[in-house]
Amino acid sequence: MIELDHVTKKFGGKTAVDDLSLAIPKGELFAFLGPNGAGKTTAIKMIAGLLRPTRGTVRINGADINDQPLAAKRMLGYVPDQPYLYDKLSGREFMRFIRDMYGMSGEALEAETTRLIDLFGMSGYVDELTETYSHGMKQRLVLAATLLHQPAVLVLDEPMVGLDPQSMRLVKDLLRRLAQGGITVLMSTHLLAVAEECADRIAIINHGRVAALGTPAEIRARDGRGETMEQFFLRICAGDGG
Length: 242
Fold this sequence. Notes:
By secondary structure, this protein is of the alpha/beta class. The chain has one domain (25-237): Rossmann fold. 36% of the residues lie in helices and 25% in strands. It has nine helices and ten strands. A six-stranded mixed β-sheet has the order 6-7-8-3-9-10, with helices on both faces. Strands 2-1-4-5 form a four-stranded antiparallel β-sheet. Strand 9 (201-206) and strand 10 (209-214) form a beta hairpin. The longest helix is centred in the last third of the chain and has 16 residues, at 165-180.
């Protein structure tokens, strides 16, 4: 599971994340929803161990991401908002590189690599250099490589950006299956429909704080106005909490 205990992140005089506390249990698909600049990516990067909180603690299955980084990151898969690859490696070579980074080997892993290549529909281009890939092809490869070490926690920052409808459907269905299989999935998004369709619970983040938290139905019904998610989101992010 993922635990954030009174987490704050400041950049100079700017507070990007402000006293954020959350507990995301095993097998839950949880979404950070919010406007650009709300603090979603900063929170995601602290969970992934790429940024250190100014205050507070982040734990991955009980391991402090800052004090026990190797233990925490072995349980964690992270997909950034921009897929970063090595241009002169093929997709298959990139997956082997990721396997080596985690110290993994064996015939079973070769079979798992092939399964993921097929699952993400990459067999037609996986042996080409990644410099030739479109954004959607790169995103598929990064997702496949992230799943190689079978993480207990999967964290994704804007995973749907730049994907065509077919790829988006694939990713949404995959995330639901992973959560149903017991993996804790956290994604950030600014796409209301994606969060409402996929997530078990949603935290609407605004100005670095949680403005609303609950299931999609609980959030829509919170103030008894019978609003759609879009209406509620726009009202909360405009500052009209009442």
